[in-house]
Amino acid sequence: MSHSEYEIKLYHPDLMSQVVSLLSHLWGKDHDNNLSYFRWKYHENPYTENPLGIVAFHNGNVVGFRGYFATKWQIHGEDQNIFVLCPGDTVVDPDHRRKRLSVIMGDRAMDEYESKYKAFFNFSSTKNSVPGYLRMGFTPLVNKSYMNRNNILGLMKFILAVNNREELHQGKITFGDFGNIIVSDNPKPKEMAAVVYGQKSHSRRIALFQDEKFFTWRFSNNRRKYAFYYYRRNNVVDGYVVINVSANNKRGFISDYSVADPVAIEKIMEFILKKKHFDIISIYSYSLNDDLLKILRKRHFKTKSLTRTIEKRKDGEWPLFIRPVKRNYAETDCFINGLDIRKIESWAIKEICSDGG
User: Fold this and answer.
1) 13: number of CA atoms within 13 Å, CB side?
2) Which of 3, 243, 271, 306 is buried deepest, with most CB atoms within 10 A?
């Protein structure tokens, strides 16, 4: 079957039902859940006028889809808006695989989106997808890795779970008001945006733009469970930490954080560890500022640990990928206001930046 037998078109909302059905090969068979997730991720994204995606047709039927998750970024102290696309949710009908449809859809996206979007940023490469990203000219930015903090009991449970001998225990997070600390299962978009706006930055990096609209949308993801920790001083939220809670166990991934004063995040971390809400806590190991890194190391967060070794052997450790949106790009297209997008030092990355965090 030749490439000429396929039509490659832009996604249109009329195709949602067919595309969501195709995505069952990637997301599983829960159609209603898939439909809600698709609507949130693509149709409700506040940074796109229309849902972004490329569709492959064969004889009038949808046989391929490649979706793009838009995010907005800024450099601290500068007014320019930088729009970035995360390529993800790529699926091809099993009867039409090994036809390079993924790459062909990716090439079409470059042609369609280069006028508005500066870069493609992939956070979720796998062993199978890495060769395709390299063929499309993506540059490995850094290997995706975590700092982990676990207690002995948590490590034992983790080892048992990996060996399929036992599921990790699902702990109970106690929500409520604890003096200076508030623990909630709901975001506070206005207060969180105020913290981000008021924080000080000592480095010039490309950082996610997080306003009230962003927080309202971002944490309505029906596939994630979050715990929100707010530090309050003089009845004003002065810092927060958001933890992405693993669905069936007691592991937490620090997805987002922002503080006007480092004391706030130190107090929050002390509280989380004291209350033993998680046996294992993880955070991206890159883009951490010196204050946060000092706080984490003091509390025994490590990049090298038995937990991390087991994870790497089980799942591998694959890179984040970056490239300009232009199909044929020049060296100058790799820079945003003098910052080289191919260097991790140019970015302020948290898990919330990704399409899966």
Assistant:
1) 7
2) 243
pLDDT tens digit string along 173-221?
Answer: 889 999 999 999 999 999 999 999 988 776 789 999 999 999 999 999 9
Q: Which two tokens stand for residue 86?
A: 């995360």
Query: Alpha-carbon distance 298 to 269, whole Å?
Result: 11
User: Which two structure tokens, joined as six digits, stand for 12?
Assistant: 């249109």
Task: State the sign of the Cα–Cα–Cα–Cα dihedral 109, 111, 116, 121.
Answer: positive
pLDDT at 166: 43
Give the Å distances, CA to CA, from 39 to 42, 80, 103, 251, 333.
Answer: 6, 28, 25, 27, 32
Q: CA 293, CA 270: separation in Å to the nearest integer?
A: 14
Q: What is the number of alpha carbons within 13 Å of residue 72 lying toward its C-beta?
A: 15
Count the neighbouring beta carbons within 10 Å of the beta carbon of residue 321: 23
End-to-end CA distance of the chain: 38
- pLDDT, average across residues 265-285: 90
CA-CA-CA-CA dihedral for 314, 315, 317, 322, to nearest 10: 180
| CB proximity list for 267: less than 8 A, separation 6 or greater | 180, 181, 231, 239
Residue 302, amino acid: K
The pLDDT of residue 198: 84
Number of residues written out for the chain: 357
Count the Cβ atoms, other than its own, within 10 Å of residue 196: 20
Q: What is the pLDDT of residue 251?
A: 81
**Extended strands (E) in the chain:** 7-10, 53-58, 61-75, 82-92, 119-122, 139-143, 146-150, 176-178, 181-184, 206-208, 225-233, 236-245, 251-259, 280-284, 319-324, 335-336, 339-340, 347-348
DSSP-assigned beta bridge partners for residue 88: 67
Residue 90, both tokens:
């790529």
Q: Are 309 and 279 in contact (CB under 8 A)?
A: no
Quick one: which of 178, 137, 53, 131 has its CA closest to 326?
Answer: 137
Query: Is the model's pTM score more than 0.85?
Result: yes
Q: Residue 29 is inside which H or E element, if any?
A: none
Kindly state the tokens that stand for 235. Answer: 């009845």
